[in-house]
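ok trying again, last paste got cut off:
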Amino acid sequence: MTFDIGVARRLVAAFGAHDTAAYFRCFADDATFVFHTTAQPIRSLSDYEQLWYGWERDGFRVLSCESTDQFVQLIGEDVAIFTHRVRTVVRLDGAEQTLDERETIVFHQRDGQWPAVHEHLSGAPE
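nice, full thing came through this time. structure:
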């Protein structure tokens, strides 16, 4: 079973719609996360969910997310590395902010599914 880029696009769409249930379903329980906006790596999906819900309590909301420059690199038959540039509009502290970032998401085929197992987000160069 080969990787379908639609898997990555559904993850990005769920994020952009602030559909947290659909977004978190895209990840394996043992997924890890490295974000330039957090001090430490996040070592599990449950840790990320707790962090996310804390952000929401503080007023965080994703308003939109545009993905461009999409590229998929296949490693064997069961690993896909998806890279893209993202322009995200969020609400933080009552104000809208536009973020320009680059992202890598690693997918690993498990039981015929392609959950994301790692996400790395960094600021895009000026």
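cool. The chain has one domain: 5-123. The longest strand covers residues 61-75.
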